[in-house]
């Protein structure tokens, strides 16, 4: 296999692998995350969050993969030099995978914050519902205790 | 040592030892925290799936951090001396421990917010 084909093949394979990292992270978190989002009473928000979780994890993993530059940082490398050096290509591939994993960690932190907000929202909803239930029977009970006075004949 | 003597290339050993040690440290930290963290989360969040989400996300973060560092530092210059292997591995593990510290600090911050929210709820 020529070096140019190796470059294309390794780029595609590592890109695919990074997308798989994102998907793997999603499948690992999906069960509990979906169960928490399903507790939200606002219709639509739970479904939106359920769809956003895989999209964001895969997108950020791919973003990490794509953020690595073959041309290097300070020392500018020419295309012919890149293609001529397989070791360099493999090193960039490793950097791409590492960057994708780093972005998954950042995405996870963001999602932990979102889940925290969802938990707070669920508690507020439940508290509001409990308050409503508490006040409604009180009014009903007051009606029952003090019935309207009998009409004198 | 005789300079003309054959010395095997120990570079793959650095990569292997680095990967094994990274994953071992990460696993050790997770196992160390898991039991108490689960108890705390079950107490604070009250939904079992919430506790499960945070535990799974901690496992994911630790694994991703360990793998990220292990992959990144897999290549090293050609190493032939045993002591050079030790230096190379310790330098890389030091980087991993730095990152783990930051990750755990962020996680502890998040759990503290969770406990603060839960504490307010119990206090009422």
Please identify the structural class of chain B as seen in this structure.
mainly alpha
Radius of gyration based on Cα positions of chain A: 28 Å
Largest interface: A-B, 32 and 29 residues
Strand content of chain B: under 5%
Kindly report the average pLDDT value of chain B: 81
The residue fraction in helices of chain A comes out at over 70%
Show unreliable segments of chain B: 120-124
Helix-strand makeup class of chain A: mainly alpha
Q: In this structure, how is the largest beta sheet of chain B organized? A: none
Question: Secondary-structure blueprint of this entry?
Answer:
The complex is a heterodimer of chains A (153) and B (124).
Chain A (H helix, E strand, L loop, with lengths): L2 H36 L6 H22 L12 H6 L1 H60 L8
Chain B lengths: L10 H35 L2 H25 L9 H42 L1
Helix pairs in contact in B: 1-2, 1-3, 2-3
Description:
The complex is a heterodimer of chains A (153) and B (124). Chain A is mainly α and 153 residues long. Helices cover 81% and strands 0% of the residues of chain A. In chain A, helix 1 packs antiparallel against helix 2 and helix 1 runs parallel beside helix 4. The termini of chain A are far apart. Chain B has one domain. Chain B contains 3 helices and no strands. At the A-B interface, helix 1 and helix 4 of A face helix 2 and helix 3 of B.
């Amino acid at each position: 296999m020529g070096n140019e084909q190796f470059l294309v093949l390794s780029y595609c394979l590592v890109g695919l692998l990074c997308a798989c990292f994102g998907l793997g992270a999603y499948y690992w978190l999906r069960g509990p995350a979906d169960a928490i989002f399903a507790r939200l009473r606002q219709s639509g928000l739970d479904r939106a969050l359920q769809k956003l979780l895989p999209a964001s994890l895969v997108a950020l993993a791919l973003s990490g993969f794509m953020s690595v530059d073959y041309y290097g940082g300070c020392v500018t490398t020419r295309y012919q030099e890149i293609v001529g050096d397989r070791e360099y290509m493999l090193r960039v591939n490793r950097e791409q995978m590492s960057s994708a994993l780093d972005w998954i960690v950042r995405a996870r932190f963001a999602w932990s914050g979102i889940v925290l907000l969802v938990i707070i929202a669920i508690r507020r909803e439940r508290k509001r519902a409990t308050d409503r239930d508490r006040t409604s029977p009180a009014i009903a009970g007051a009606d029952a205790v003090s019935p309207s006075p009998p009409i004198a004949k | 040592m005789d300079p003309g003597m054959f010395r095997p290339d120990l570079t793959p050993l650095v990569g292997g030892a680095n990967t094994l040690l990274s994953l071992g440290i990460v696993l050790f930290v997770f196992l160390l925290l898991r039991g108490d963290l689960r108890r705390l989360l079950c107490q604070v969040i009250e939904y079992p799936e919430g506790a499960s989400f945070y535990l799974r996300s901690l496992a994911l973060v630790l694994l991703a951090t360990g793998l990220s560092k292990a992959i990144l530092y897999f290549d090293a210059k050609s190493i032939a001396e045993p002591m050079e292997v030790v230096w190379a591995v310790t330098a890389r593990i030091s980087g991993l421990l730095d990152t783990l510290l930051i990750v755990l600090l962020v996680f502890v911050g998040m759990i503290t917010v969770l406990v603060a929210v839960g504490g307010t709820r119990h206090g009422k």
